[in-house]
């Protein structure tokens, strides 16, 4: 039986912000084909794993998950947990063979790489360079545990290297993660830029993750060239809106990103303010003096009246003296 894992280097973007992961080639036989898996032969195990389990707890059915994606993303290719379930164990086994440096990042790499996060049911929508996924967990705690792993990975694994030995050849990929600013009405949100380089090739992407209750929605867009800051900011806004629309439809709550806060006005320098006040006071005094001078000039009768009054007073004084 040939492996269904199609490439020696696979960039999985189904889960949130994964790196390039190195798996077996498509021509490789399944390892230990005759050995028991899960207490039985491979054929029996394959039959048991042919389809995903039924929803439990707060999990939503595949029909509801697929319907939400189909309504939001018309024409997109829709898949669900059943698509990946048969190979989930084999994929996990291959991921365990990866060498990750630093070693503390291995758990984050493996958990993020699985197309179906542990304990969830999923539906995925693909169209061109954009991919969206929704994960439905049994309860809110399980969803938050998954989100926490992504948050810790972003905080502690900004740069890491993944290596895989394959047919006496060592395949290596390096990943760089950078957090991006995001505004969302979801309970939890994060966004990042991801760059993966392997054997001269590179992959660039921007991704958004939102969680609300027992649901997690992810949206990722890949780029051929490094996007500039303005393009990344706009992509984050678009991806957040798409993920929020899926969560809104499934939860029945309207999840809307808040408006950006206005930028604070620049504070004036205290010395400049004092100087302006002193200058204003001087200008005010000069203006008052000038106004008085203008009033005197504009009213000549007033000056004549003052002179007449002074003459009268002097005359009166002289007459009084003569008397």
Overview of this structure, please?
With 323 residues, this protein is an alpha+beta fold. It has a domain at 56-251: Protein Transport Mog1p, Chain A. 41% of the residues lie in helices and 25% in strands. The protein contains eight helices and eleven strands. The strands form two sheets. A nine-stranded antiparallel sheet has the order 3-5-6-11-10-9-8-7-4, with helices on both faces. Residues 1-19 form the signal peptide.
Mean pLDDT across residues? 77
CATH topology assignment of the domain at 56-251: Protein Transport Mog1p, Chain A
Write out the strand line-up for the largest beta sheet, numbering strands in chain order.
3-5-6-11-10-9-8-7-4
| CATH C-level of the domain at 56-251 | Alpha Beta
Instruction: Give the number of DSSP strands.
Output: 11
Ends distance:
146 Å
Major sheet, described briefly?
Answer: 9 strands, antiparallel
Q: Based on the structure given, which CATH architecture of the domain at 56-251 is correct?
A: 3-Layer(aba) Sandwich
Note the topology.
Elements: E1 9-11, E2 20-22, H1 42-48, H2 62-72, E3 77-80, H3 81-96, E4 99-101, H4 106-113, E5 120-127, E6 130-137, H5 140-156, E7 159-166, E8 169-180, E9 188-198, E10 201-212, E11 215-223, H6 229-251, H7 270-298, H8 300-322
Helix pairs in contact: 2-6, 4-5
């Amino acid at each position: 039986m040939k492996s269904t894992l199609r490439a020696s280097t696979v960039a999985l973007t189904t889960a949130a912000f994964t790196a390039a992961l190195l798996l077996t080639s498509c021509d490789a036989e399944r390892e230990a084909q005759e050995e028991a898996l899960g207490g039985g032969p491979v054929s029996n195990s394959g039959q048991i794993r042919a389809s995903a389990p039924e929803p439990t707890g707060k999990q939503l059915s595949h029909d509801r998950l697929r319907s939400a994606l189909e309504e939001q993303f018309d024409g997109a290719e829709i898949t669900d947990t059943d698509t990946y379930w048969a190979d989930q164990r084999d994929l996990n086994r291959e991921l365990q063979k990866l060498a990750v440096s630093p070693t503390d990042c291995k758990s984050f790499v493996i958990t993020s790489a699985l197309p179906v996060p542990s304990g969830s049911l999923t539906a995925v929508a693909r169209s061109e360079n954009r991919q969206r996924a929704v994960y439905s967990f049994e309860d809110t705690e399980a969803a938050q545990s998954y989100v926490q792993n992504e948050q810790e990975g972003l905080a502690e694994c900004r740069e890491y290297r993944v290596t895989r030995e394959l047919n006496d050849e060592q395949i290596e990929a390096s990943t760089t993660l950078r957090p991006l600013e995001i505004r969302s009405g979801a309970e939890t949100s994060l966004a990042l830029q991801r760059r993966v380089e392997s054997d001269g090739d590179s992959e660039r992407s921007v991704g958004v993750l939102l969680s609300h209750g027992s649901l997690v929605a992810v949206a990722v867009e890949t780029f051929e060239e490094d996007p500039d800051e303005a393009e990344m900011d706009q992509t984050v806004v678009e991806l957040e809106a798409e993920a929020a629309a899926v969560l809104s439809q499934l939860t029945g709550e309207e999840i809307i990103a808040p408006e950006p806060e206005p930028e604070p006005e620049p504070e004036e320098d205290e010395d400049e303010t004092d100087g302006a006040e002193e200058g204003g006071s001087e200008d005010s005094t000069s203006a008052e003096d000038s106004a008085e001078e203008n009033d005197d000039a504009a009213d000549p009768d007033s000056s004549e009246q003052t002179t007449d009054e002074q003459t009268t007073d002097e005359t009166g004084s002289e007459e009084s003296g003569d008397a």
